[in-house]
Amino acid sequence: MSDLKTASVFADSKQHFLILDALRGVAALMVVLFHVFEIYSDGDHVKQFINHGYLAVDFFFMLSGYVMAHAYDDRWDTMSLKAFFKRRLIRLHPMIIAGMVIGALCFFFQESPMFPNIANTSLGQMLLIFVIGCTLVPVPPSMDIRGWTEMHPLNGPAWSLFFEYIANILHALILRHLSKLVLAVLLGIAAVALIHLGVTSPKGDIIGGWSIDATQLHIGFTRLLFPYLAGMLLRRAVKVGTGKNTFVGTALLLIAALGMPRIGGYEHLWANGLYDSLTVILLFPIIIYFGATGKVVGNASEKICTFLGDISYPIYIIHYPIVYIFYAWVTNNQVPIEEGIWVGMSLFPLILLLSYAALKGYDERVRKWLAKKFLTSDLKSKTAKN
User: Fold this and answer.
1) pTM
2) Fewest CB within 10 angstroms: 176, 308, 311, 380, which?
3) CA angle 170, 174, 175 (to 5 degrees)
4) To the nearest whole percent, how much of the chain has pLDDT over 70?
5) pLDDT in the model for residue 243
6) Quick check: 186 and 229 in contact, CB under 8 A?
């Protein structure tokens, strides 16, 4: 079996890396685990189960840089900026809206001391945040309706899609024009910034980026730039080939990295920050390299990888509003971990089913319709030029 598969609504889409798509699914599942267990850490990151699940976001950014370089860097002579941005909106935005819809429907069921602003939020205020959220325009802390100062209070993980759009804009306007040498220099600077963020963090990690204030924006851009640039440079510098079946090995390595217990405890917070930054700088490129150069062997493996790749984005973007309700239930009822964890784990099949239903019943259909309506003229123009 080939390591590549076509999985796009775009008629002229390049083939996708099947193992990389599957690894995105593995990382998304680890994010769900991280969030489900988070309620029982009481905000203490040292006690957090699936302790480094937050690094999945940095892995997503690196995958994005790699895939964007693969999909578009040799096509700019035949593709306009307008066509590129339409493609990115069609690919990402339908599920962003779906996540906001689910967030709005779940919002008032999440009322608890953990989310102090919900009790004083009117339906009109929530609907205003919903409309803004559907555009992915971030809201300032003064408009927070939850109490966590999120830029997208109805669906927290949308913050990373905000930065993904920024990366795509930078890619189209600036980064695609840069040589490998210039990219490497920028990558070195970004690596230093990421290490500095990790070792100087007051909490000993690189967690953050979800709020519109100076500190959080600094964290967000620092977390974005190194992995995205690294993904781009890795795709440009390393020839894509086919090797052995690397899915199991890379998946286990990724799970181990994201599930690693806290490093350094309370006494040496810098040690965990160093682990965070070096995992992103050294380990993630290795995982992506072997994922990109491997191949999937056997029908069963291909089906598993395809499924994981297909549901990776829906799982990530719609799971948190459901987990918010779980948090509220645990908080309001003082549910002990012995009971709550089983309920939390039972959310997995619900989230999987909802994600798959959203993918097949909504996302793929909407993207196909949008591509047909808004990209047909681009394809005709390209054909005429050829």
Assistant:
1) 0.93
2) 380
3) 80
4) 93
5) 72
6) yes
